[in-house]
Design a protein that fits this description.
By secondary structure, the protein is an alpha+beta fold. It has helices spanning 2-18, 48-52, 57-66, 70-74, 81-115, 126-164; strands at 21-25, 28-33, 36-41, 44-47, 174-184, 188-198. The protein starts with a helix and ends with a strand.
Length: 199
């Protein structure tokens, strides 16, 4: 009796694993067969595996690493490209500005120390020049760090955006803000706004 039960269970598992199922989901037929799922929309059959390979996160990350903004172009998010280059442009301008100030006042400080004059050509004392040089170096280094942060952020944006390309968003998902009035035995009538989430 035990042998017959084991044979029946194994044969039913083998039958279920090889069976092809067809389901109707919102007017679209879905065919499932072992490792592949096919979605038919208006007569066109698309395998989900090939659909998901259209946007590869690794490829978007590689493109963004080689050329900043290329990952966003790969993901067809062309509107992000001006923001990427505007960010890099502004931050790089800050690096250049503070590097020029650092070099200018550092040279004035060296000239002042060599000539032993009380003031430099720009009428600054040694202490003032040292403060300006330190501040310019600190600001330049901060802008270099911001430049590296901007580079990493555009890499992360390209990678995450490629992952989210295949994310299925529920069309019934809604968030609404509505006025509300509540009656409470302790506090009486209260009015305000309610935030409603529909999933």
């Amino acid at each position: 009796m035990f042998r017959i039960l084991v044979i029946l269970v194994l044969s039913s598992i083998a039958t279920l694993s090889c069976a092809q199922q067809t389901e109707e989901v919102a007017g679209d037929s879905i065919l499932q067969n072992r490792d592949s799922i096919m979605i038919s929309k208006s007569g066109k059959v698309i395998t989900v595996a090939s659909y998901a390979k259209r946007y590869q996160p690794r490829k978007a990350l590689l493109y963004a690493a080689v050329l900043p903004g290329a990952g966003q172009v790969y993901n067809n998010k062309y509107w992000k490209l001006p923001f990427v280059y505007a960010g890099f442009g502004l931050i790089t301008y800050g690096v250049i500005y503070y590097n020029d100030a650092y070099n200018k006042y550092k040279n004035e400080l060296f000239t002042l120390l060599e000539t032993q004059a009380p003031k430099s050509a720009s009428q600054l004392t040694e202490e003032q020049l040292r403060t300006i040089v330190d501040e310019a170096r600190r600001q330049r280094d901060m802008f270099i760090i911001l430049d590296a942060f901007m580079y990493i952020m555009q890499l992360v944006d390209a990678h995450v955006d490629a992952h989210l390309k295949e994310f299925d968003l529920n069309p019934q998902l809604k968030v609404s803000l509505q006025p509300s009035v509540q009656q409470n035995g302790l506090t009486g009538r209260t009015s305000g706004f309610s935030l409603t989430f529909k999933f």
